[in-house]
Amino acid sequence: MNADTPRGPVTLHASDAGFEAAFTDLLNQKRENDPDVNATVAAILADVRARGDAAVTEYTNRFDRQSLTPDQIRLTADEINSAADSVDPALLVALRQAAERIRAYHRRQMPEDFQYTDDAGVRLGSRWSAVEAAGLYVPGGTAAYPSSVLMNAIPAKVAGVDRLVMVVPTPDGVLNPLVMAAAREAGVDEIYRIGGAQAVGALAYGTETIRPVDKIVGPGNAFVAAAKRQVFGIVGIDMIAGPSEILVIADAANDPAWIAMDLLSQAEHDTAAQSILITDDAAFAAAVADAVEEHLKTLPRAGIARESWQTHGALIVVEDLRRDAPALADRIAAEHLELAVEEPEALAARIRHAGAIFLGRHTPEAVGDYVGGPNHVLPTARSARFSSGLGVLDFMKRTSLLGCTPEALALIGPAAVTLAGAEGLQAHGLSVALRLK
Amino acid sequence: MNADTPRGPVTLHASDAGFEAAFTDLLNQKRENDPDVNATVAAILADVRARGDAAVTEYTNRFDRQSLTPDQIRLTADEINSAADSVDPALLVALRQAAERIRAYHRRQMPEDFQYTDDAGVRLGSRWSAVEAAGLYVPGGTAAYPSSVLMNAIPAKVAGVDRLVMVVPTPDGVLNPLVMAAAREAGVDEIYRIGGAQAVGALAYGTETIRPVDKIVGPGNAFVAAAKRQVFGIVGIDMIAGPSEILVIADAANDPAWIAMDLLSQAEHDTAAQSILITDDAAFAAAVADAVEEHLKTLPRAGIARESWQTHGALIVVEDLRRDAPALADRIAAEHLELAVEEPEALAARIRHAGAIFLGRHTPEAVGDYVGGPNHVLPTARSARFSSGLGVLDFMKRTSLLGCTPEALALIGPAAVTLAGAEGLQAHGLSVALRLK
Asked: Do A296 and A181 have their domain in common?
């Protein structure tokens, strides 16, 4: 099936003979078709590396229709504050409530060090420390979401990052006040009005005015994603996020209009987004489909949402939710999993792969996008099988500690000498053996 | 300075005027020059994806000079056991001791779930689960290290990976008995005699006989590294390791012969390896340099070690170890950091970036390569600034949990509606607002 052809959401019945093939098709749907911009990006990165501020400023002026000099790239505290102060106070209150809840949740993620001496007298330990400097990419224009600034910045600050540097393009010089307010609320330390591959290059290599960072996170377009991949190794990067997706598991006791809106809340993000319902009631599935059509009549982003729903949406009917849904949910490994059932905790316990789980009929996914507390940067495209949402660990790293006394080395050293010999690494063996004499 | 020209290890004095420039040069040395094999690898991966076993078998027979049929790719239990049983019993004992120590250390890394209800009545949680299936790449020939099998496989099994699949090429049909013994000891579930990009493709996409995995770890040559990068996203991968490196911080109370052997234990790995000494005594630095030359007269791998030492080695003399060494160590961010000083814990506490720290005069790095307990798969090339050694977390992922009662949603939902409105995402806001009525 051509993923680009809207065909109406598919309805699949798990009891049908063709179900397995159709479900596999659904899983294998290609939902992204980023252009290959690697060569363009490589040239920009090389130029930024070689010429620093001059290159960054030139690209910024060209792509964002600006006329900046290098000393104007960094936003002053006055610029940030006057933009942030212009935000509607009710919005500032909501941002603050969101930030506080996100901070409280992420504080629980702080890992613990350990230290012990074992039976052989060997001192062993593990010590976490924060990345020193992190860069946060924030897209410009309509894709600039203040919630995303909070979700990326707060875990870094909770982890203990000393220097959190934000880059955000300001096409035609337009600054987004809400983004400034979110950055201030989250404790961002430096903000530069640059974007694209040139901003990623500046963060990775540093320039005369921007000191390099150790890790770069945050969403961006194809150029930004390619640039992050190319600088990976010089700095750490977060995952490259794909289009958003939601799987709702719902019984017939739900209001179809609620569930339909939940499906649309992902569909409205992006025509490549995917919304799937699993239910045990064909009539309920049909009622949800009808409710989707009804909502689409009035939603401002109906054009995007309709294309997503018709191209990638699916309604799956199984016989028994508790028995049949977990295996399907694990194969989908959804970014967002909503369990609109009577005993959501019991169902959640039976499902292994999901980025985030939303429990019960009164927990729409969107509440988690803003104020729930857990992060909304989550693994997409089935990568919840092997990866996690953004969190404080993404801004920390672990150092192992090992200490031997002469007596401890006498107990464990001989095995090291034996194994080093078997591997043909004599200096390895001798570095131990010299101390055993 | 051309990194490929051996120039003898540099000696740098921190008090010299040119120190900063020379030290920066040392940090920026290019120590790797992998050929660009991306196009070749892409073709092999596409072929494996399209033709499965047939492609894997053809490449294996061609590159490894074999004449296998697809049903012979998987090693039988008899083949594994008879190879493993042929190993010298003393080696099996050493392997077992290493495995037990590695297992004990990694068990301490198991993360904890959490669950709580906050003041707003919102149920919040975080749940860790293991990756279902992991693939372990093991190089063939001389680079096949049984210790590396233990270090990669044991964390996966401690994490709870259900299915651990090893691939190892057997050029000319030669099986490495020690690798088989290590795989058996570590609890590897399936072993296939394949390697190269074709093996990575088989693990990522699956074939008729090899079910796909969710994550691929383990070292390999340029083809394997490129293949891992290309399948990243379909599966998770570990870091791409660069040449090994050691930083030894040692005072003059050490035996120069011991410290010299520690430096050589990294240098013997690879001509691109790097060994650096920081000391506060110029005469001690000279004595270590002399001891290196003395050891090189008899070391079997002297050719490799000498080239590494002469091309990338360095002796750095500072005035005061406690005062001057930490800042330099953090800029080097070494894979292995040995603290051969009187109070190693105090010095360790002042250093933030290192993959693994070895404490005191009786803890040569090599003991950690085999039997210390912590992992020997560690971040190289200054990536300890932002990444960690391999551990159980690499085989696990986290799911966040969020649950609202109607009352809790009434408390936190309005802020979500406000923020969704500001971001222009109406369906997001409505999915919450519908439930607030």
From this structure: no
Pairing label, strands B123-130, B396-403: antiparallel
Q: Is A86 on the interface with B (CB under 8 A)?
A: no
- Assembly ipTM: 0.96
In degrees and rounded to multiples of 5, residue B125 shows phi and psi of -160, 170
Write out residues 158-197 of A within 8 Å (CB-CB) of B.
178
CA A350 to chain centre: 24
Which of A105, A115, A231, A370 has the highest number of chain B CBs within 10 A, making it the mutation to test binding with B? A370
Do A20 and A45 fall within a single domain?
A: no
Mean predicted confidence (pLDDT) in A15-41: 87
For A220, other C-beta atoms within 10 Å of its C-beta total: 25
> Are B176 and B190 part of one and the same domain?
yes
Question: Are residues B361 and B415 located together in one domain of the fold?
Answer: no
Q: Which of chain B's residues have a Cβ under 8 Å away from the Cβ of A42?
A: none
- The catalytic position among B185, B335, B338, B365 is B335
Structural domain contains residue A357: yes
Residue A279 has pLDDT above 50, yes or no: yes
Q: Do B402 and A372 touch (CB under 8 A)?
A: yes
Show the low-confidence residues of chain B (pLDDT under 50).
1-3
Mean pLDDT for chain A overall = 95
Of B178, B367, B409, the CB nearest to A422: B178
pLDDT recorded at residue A258: 98
- Mean per-residue pLDDT for A332-344? 98
Consult the annotation and say whether A336 binds a ligand: yes
Taking only the tens place, the pLDDT of each residue in A357-369 is 999 999 999 999 9
Residues A78 and A156 in one domain: yes
Q: Residue A6 — pLDDT band, cuts 50, 70, 90?
A: low
Q: Are residues A371 and A288 in the same domain?
A: yes
Please confirm, yes or no, whether B293 is among the known catalytic residues.
Answer: no
**Residue A353 sits in the same domain as residue A423:** no
Is residue A64 domain-shared with residue A171, that is, in the same domain?
Answer: yes
Say what the pLDDT of residue A378 is.
97
Question: CB A381 to CB B109 under 8 A?
Answer: no
Alpha carbons B250 and B252: distance in angstroms, whole number:
7
CATH code of the domain covering residue A205: 3.40.50.1980
> Residue A124 and residue B106: Cα distance in Å, rounded?
11
Of B361, B366, B427, which has the smallest distance from its Cβ to A261's Cβ?
B427
**Beta-carbon contacts of residue A361 (< 8 Å; ≥ 6 apart):** A253, A254, A258, A340, A341, B435
Mean pLDDT of chain B: 95
Q: pLDDT digit string (tens) for A40-69? A: 999 999 999 999 999 999 999 999 999 999
Q: Give residue A5's pLDDT.
A: 59
Distance CA B168, CA B170 (A): 6
In the structure, what pLDDT confidence band is assigned to residue A2 with cuts at 50, 70 and 90?
A: very low
Q: Are A143 and A377 in contact (CB under 8 A)?
A: no
Q: Which amino acid is at B64?
A: D
8 Å CB contact of A425 and B269? yes
Per the CB < 8 Å rule, is A434 touching B257?
yes
Stretch A93-110: mean pLDDT, rounded? 98
Phi, psi for residue A332 in degrees, rounded to 5: -75, -35
Q: How many domains does chain A have?
A: 3
Across A168-183, average pLDDT: 95
Which residues of A are tagged catalytic? 335-336
CA angle at residue A251 from A247 to A252, to 5 degrees?
Answer: 130
Cα–Cα distances in angstroms (integers) from residue B70 to residues A399, B74, B76, in the given order? 43, 8, 13
Distance from B241 to chain A by nearest Cα, in Å? 10
A402 touches chain B (CB under 8 A): yes
Q: Tell me what pLDDT residue A35 has.
A: 76
Q: Which domain holds residue A85?
A: 38-112+131-237
By C-alpha distance, the chain B residue nearest A369 is B416
